[in-house]
Amino acid sequence: MKSQAPKRRFSKRRANTSRLRPANPKLILLNKPFGVLSQFSGSDGEQTLKGLIPHNDVYPAGRLDKDSEGLLLLTNDGNLQHKISHPKHKVPKTYWVQVEGVPTESELQQLRDGVELNDGITLPAEAFLMEEPINLWPRTPPVRERKSVPDCWVCIKISEGRNRQVRRMTAAIGYPTLRLIRAGIGPWLLRSLQPGEWREEPPVW
């Protein structure tokens, strides 16, 4: 009796083409203005990225809340987008945070050690008082001021990406966030970009 050749087994999984690099990878650094959504579409009356970026083939790598300002990365490279935005890669993000009141060193240490939020304790962070950023642009509308309560700036660096995490962290130690600016994501920095301005840099990954 003639033996049959063993059947070849083929994986039903399709090849993962999402990791293929584009022929012309782009990385756009944008200073997202206050009140603008981190997307290209929105409801009537909502401000979006449309009109700020002249490229139609890039997408945000991560998000920045509508009421936050600063660095937003956009790319046409799905592999790079994944490395920047996926929580498992723990890409550090640096924020300049204007808070109501002036935290003590022991209160800042709570941020460094991790604070308890409603979705669990945060990972250790960097946190220290800083001077107001040089050449800081005015915000529209301006931040509310209370003459009886001082405010200050805190630099906070985290490696997570929970929803409104920095605002919840400062609130957890008793200092509400008044203004939030993202100044850096991994090796990429806001530098001198003004609101609505962008520049292109070569991807480093």
Core attributes:
single chain; 205 residues; alpha+beta; two-stranded antiparallel sheet
Describe the structure.
By secondary structure, the chain is α+β, with helices and mostly antiparallel strands. Strand 2 and strand 3 (69-75) form a beta hairpin. 12% of the residues lie in helices and 26% in strands. It is globular and about 55 Å long. Residues 10-17 have low confidence and may be disordered. The protein has helices at residues 78-85, 105-113, 165-172, and strands at residues 27-32, 59-60, 69-75, 93-100, 116-117, 120-121, 126-130, 151-158, 177-185, 188-189, 198-200.
The end-to-end distance, rounded to whole angstroms, is 58 Å
Structural class by SSE content: alpha+beta
| Residues in helix, % | 10-25%
The low-confidence parts are 10-17
Any idea what the radius of gyration is?
21 Å
So what's the overall shape?
globular
The number of helices is: 3
The overall pLDDT average reads: 90
List the secondary-structure elements in sequence, H or E: EEEHEHEEEEHEEE
Hey, roughly how much beta strand do the residues contain?
25-35%
Strand count, sense and barrel status of the largest sheet are: 9 strands, mixed
Instruction: Count every beta strand, where a strand is a DSSP E run of 2 or more residues.
Output: 11
